[in-house]
Amino acid sequence: MQRVLSKIFGTSNDRAIKRMLPLVEQVNCLEGELSKLSDADLRGRTVLYRERLAQGEELDGLLPEAFATVREAAKRSLGQRHYDVQIVGGIVLHQGRISEMKTGEGKTLVATLPSYLNGLTGRGVHIVTVNDFLAKRDAEWMGQLHRFLGLDVGAIVHGLTDAERVAAYAADVTYCTNNELGFDYLRDNMKFSLDSCVQRDLHYAIVDEVDSILIDEARTPLIISGPSEQNTQIYTIANRLIPSLSEGKAAEPAKGIEETGDYWVEEKSHSATFTDEGIHKCERMLRVENLFEPGMLPVLHALQQALMAHSLKRIDVDYVVRVGEDKRKEVVIVDEHTGRLMPGRRWSDGLHQAVEAKEGITVRSESQTFASITFQNYFRMYDKLAGMTGTADTEAEEFGKIYNLDVSLIPTNRPLIRNDEADVVFKTKKEKFDATAEELKQRHEAGQPVLVGTISIETSEMLAKKLKKVGLKHTVLNAKKHEHESEIVAQAGRKGAITISTNMAGRGTDILLGGNPEQMALQKCDHDKSHPDYEATLAKFEGQCATEREEVLAAGGLHILGTERHESRRIDNQLRGRSGRQGDPGSSQFFLSLEDDLLRIFEADRVKQWWDRVGVEEGEAIENRMLTRVIEGAQKKVESRNFDIRKHLLDYDNVMNKQRQAFYARRLTAMSADDEALHNEIQACLEGYVVGLLERHWPQRGDPEDDDYVEMAHALEAQFGIAFSIVEAPFRTAEGGRAGDRDELGHAILASLNARLDQKKAEGRQLRDEEYADVDGYPTFEQIARDLQLQILDAQWKAHLHTMDALRESINLRGYAQRDPKLEYQREGFGLFGEMEQRIDDSFAEFVFRFEYPRPKPQAVARRTEGAATAAPAGAKQGGVTGAAAAGPVAGGAAAGAVAKGKVGRNDPCPCGSGKKHKKCCAA
Strand order in 173-177's β-sheet? Predict the structure, then answer.
């Protein structure tokens, strides 16, 4: 029925596109008028539009004129003109939706339309790409258009200083990467002054390759972390045991099958589990009685991670080993979706350490989280969010449920005529790759360029060796050989070219049939357009590429040959989408085998039955549309499972997100508070402490005894470092009697504390006026108190994150007691957050009394005040999968010179209130 209705009325997407056509027509009607304007008059339109916005006109009302202005500016500054379908794509992005446009349809140019319109507000537009190369390239390339129209353009990439970041974020349009955005947000929430923060409010983001960033990386939180106290030796010990164990099978009670071996691996869920016999064998080798005793749990955890490292993590597939910047070997994760290396990122929970032990390299210490956020929760903070990709429709449900983003399929400018052939399935991998080599030889001899897609470095290098043996010239692009990525991709369309590449997401370069003359000329002229021979070389290659293009078109265009299906149909579609751009001919086909992971893990029995029924001889293959649908069905199963995993993780992260937002809001208030607000905060903390004190020590019935007063006096002295006597105020009135009731005693205690606080402030003023009158920047009580508060906040938040991580790891056990783990996590997490807030209040109330004013030499004061706005973690590093090692806790500002009374010893409790020893916290 749905198909019949769609044929009669069109799909909902068709109807949505039709509703935009009148706007496109308005843009077209303005083209002739704007083309007559001088460059200065065209640029003056930006000033005019901003004036109209200031007078109350809406952006939607400006859209036709603004888009027409951008189209005209693109012709003059870039030599390009927006097609009508690109105008439609721009409207979709402005409306806060996802625009699905096929590869080669000009998504980069489309983004200039809504970015200019929304950039007129002056609130900032972020165009988000997947890597630094694309961010820099697009800022320079498309920045020409925006600057032509008078907008400021910035780029946020790795390695910028804070001052450079502030300038880039202040621009009307900022090109940036998702990682840099997230880390800047986290770093800003660890700074000690508003002036040192780099980001402004999150207004509008256009996310390029939106499926890669918001879906593929949704399970990868951004983490800033520091070193933990864990002993790494246990990973080395655990690693020695695993090779002695044998793999078996899981129990199947329904079939009466018992578990076998020492462990079993479940590839579908990506897990490995010890059997009872495996645990006993480990206990015997370690000479311990019970690995489940509390003291042995770290060892058991290390064993589980070592088992994962050996059974599920493969070198040159999941990671590579290379020499790092510190000249030591390191394990670097390979992004499963893009095939790129991810330096600086580490697997969490000890898995990275287990892989390091497996590879026999230095095991680096685990990390403790200082701050973290997922891309899901970061991008949901924007007032308006939009995205672009060539492959979003398969994930439309997830975009709608998680991000409230609708997907619009934008028609191609020219009809897509690529021929997507049915999959060819072989029995073994050897047969598949033999056939692949033969297929490549035939197409190469015919002059047809072929892009070969692989899903791992291992496969790409194995295939490259096979082609080398048979004498077929080829080029390899993978995470190990990415230095000349854009050049390799640009020339993949040359006559007879064979290019072997891992996943093609986010490559950012179109494959031009016949070759890219500009890239060829640049390569010949040392990548310098000012080279004296550049123009002549370019002209020569333009003629050569034009001739080759005709020959390639005659040979059938670019052919895509996939050597394995990815878990996600979307990644396969990204590979296919490299062929058939802008109406060019092309074709695609996948060569598969029954030994491929996807078929082996998810559809082995079904495909095997099909295979036996057809009766295929050795060396032959099946090419059948129905078999292709079976394979796509397996992909749908995996996609559905992965969506459930991401949704499950988001449910838990939403709890942390609410806590994160509440904590960061409090920290921002503390950082921006004036002196009056700071004193009010101190009063609130003192009142909270006194109320709690009286609740603990004032009897439920009757009046307190002397022992109760003694306990209160001792508690006050322990908290504030001030001696109280029960025969003096506040425990005695001026007349010598006891307080009449609890409220009266509470007010008396507060009055006494405030009197001592006034003395503390007076002491600071006296020091400044008498001993340091000639020294600039001697800190006031308020400056020290403000920085102390920020240090206490950061230390308690760090400890809270550690507690929440431990809760998250153990919460699933509540399911055995018939309790919902998610609800339990939410309930218990809320309680832990409340306890953290109470510790913050109590610690702040304590240390405004306990600190001592600094007594430095004058030169030291001057130096310290210059760095009073120190950003947190000087050495804190960024992690994606988890945090890498970093320096100790945050410290900075005026409080850096203040010390707690009694000169805190290394083994004393840390004065920040974390509950740890000083040497393992702020003195680390």
Answer: 153-156, 173-177, 125-129, 204-208, 384-389, 98-100, 407-409
624: domain CATH number is 3.40.50.300
Neighbours of 81 (CB within 10 A): 12
pLDDT at 9 over 50: no
Among the listed residues 553, 556, 523, the one whose alpha carbon sits nearest the alpha carbon of residue 540:
523
Statement to judge: residues 533 and 486 lie in one domain: yes
Tell me: do 482 and 601 sit in the same domain. yes
**Domain containing residue 244: CATH number:** 3.90.1440.10
The length of the chain in residues reads 924
Q: How many CA atoms lie within 13 A of 778 on its CB side?
A: 19
pLDDT in tens, 594-626: 888 887 777 666 766 766 676 666 667 777 777
- Looking at residue 833, its amino acid is F
Burial of 349 by CB count in 10 Å (0-12 exposed, 13-18 middle, 19+ buried)? middle
CATH number at residue 672: 1.10.3060.10
Contacts of 39 (CB under 8 A, 6+ apart): 76, 148
Please report, as a single letter, which amino acid is at residue 207.
V
Say whether 587 sits in a helix, a strand or coil.
Answer: strand
Q: Are residues 582 and 728 in the same domain?
A: no
Cα–Cα distance for residue pair 122/687, rounded to 1 Å: 44
Residues contacting 786, CB < 8 A, separation 6+:
670, 671, 673, 678, 893, 894, 895
Both tokens of 752, joined, read 């006494």
Question: How many angstroms separate the Cα of 194 from the Cα of each of 667, 668, 796?
Answer: 11, 8, 21
Average pLDDT for the chain:
84
Q: Is residue 842 in a domain? A: yes
- Residue 817 gets which letter from DSSP? G
Most confident of 48-52, 266-270, 476-480, 737-741: 48-52
Total structural domains within the chain: 4
Question: What is the token pair recorded at 171?
Answer: 């621009």
Do 75 and 185 sit in the same domain of this protein?
yes
Range of the domain at 547: 419-635
